Amino acid sequence: MKHEHRLKVGPVTFRVGSQWAAPVRQLAELYRDYPAADAVCDFTVRLEAEKPWRRWVRPSVAIRGDYMLPDAVPMALEHGLLAAEMGMNLQMALGYRRHLLLHASTVERDGRALLMTGLSGSGKSTLAALLGEAGWRLMGDEFALLDLDTGTLHPFPRAVSLKNQSVYVMEERAGPNRLGPWLKGTPKGAIRHFRPSRDAIERMSEPAAPALILFPRYGRDLEAAVRPVGPAEVFVRLTQASTNYVALGERAFDALTHLVTTVPALAIDYPSTEAALAQVEELWAK
Fold first, then answer.
1. Does residue 81 contact residue 27 with C-beta atoms inside 8 Å?
2. At what angle do helices 250-262 and 231-240 cross, to 10 degrees?
3. In the chain, N or C terminus with fewer CB closer than 10 Å?
4. Which residue stretches of the chain are H helix?
């Protein structure tokens, strides 16, 4: 690749290469506070033209690398940063085996971690980003890394993908300098990436013990509510939220069983971010 950037996020290193300069320049700016990776990286992502002429004529970006989806639809060059982020997600989802991967957000306080997972649109990304600006350490948004031996959660604080109105919420809370460029017209609407705080980045080698699991659900017409979730339901939900549970076999079963039988779990409904923050603080205090 003519242009490339190497970075380390938590225990994982990436090499992202591109035939175009713009996606790599945007990625380097978004991750400017992160340590550089060594010469040999865990995963490689390549952003290449779908066809040779599509590098210049109506440029289209195909996401390739160590692991690929052969039927993936190429993206417009203006969404090159999003393609790089998706490429890193793809490498993790298909190739990572050192920890049990859970599609979840994680924040930490006083050495204990809060794990949040839910369907797309549940608001977990925005909630995690807001908590990271309110006295919590943001450990990660896209993936939570559960240690198969110790049961602790390891940080993976990538940039948080924010959609539509949540962008303005975080811009008001943290200022515009922590946000990447606008990516408009994506399949998920208008997107900006939010860079975690410097403290979260500097402490991304510090694991934490899980203390609470939340399943948030956002809706303007919902009333704030809390209900307990039993271990069996939590187990099923988390296996569905994992991309490598089957590949890891018995060790993943044992680690997940220990998690769901030792850590309380609750489902919360909330009509606004303010209500969600209040619910989290109240539940955490208990």
1. yes
2. 140
3. C
4. 21-30, 80-95, 124-132, 165-174, 198-202, 231-240, 245-248, 250-262, 273-285
**What Cα–Cα distance (Å) separates residue 201 from each residue in 39, 139, 181, 195, 232?**
21, 9, 20, 9, 34
Q: Return the bridge partners of 116, or none.
A: 105, 214
For residue 27, the one-letter residue type is L
Residue 103 in this model has a pLDDT that exceeds 80: yes
Angle at 247 between CA 108 and CA 207, to 5 degrees: 20
Q: What are phi and psi of 23, to 5 degrees?
A: -60, -40
Query: How do residues 49-69 score in pLDDT, each as one tens digit?
Result: 988 989 999 999 999 999 999
State whether residue 66 is helix, strand or coil. coil
- pLDDT surpasses 90 at 164: no
Mean pLDDT across 11-24 = 98
Tokens 């952003």 correspond to: 47
DSSP 208: B
Query: Which domains does the chain show, CATH number per domain?
Result: 3-95 (no CATH), 100-158+196-285 (3.90.228.20)
* CA angle in degrees (0–180, nearest 5) for 127-131-132: 115
| Token pair recorded at residue 255 | 């680690």
Q: At what angle do helices 80-95 and 21-30 cross, to 10 degrees?
A: 70
Rounded Cα gap, residues 97 and 80, in angstroms: 27
Token pair, residue 32, equals 């400017």
- Whole-number Å distance between alpha carbons of 134 and 65: 37
Helix (H) or strand (E) holding 158: none
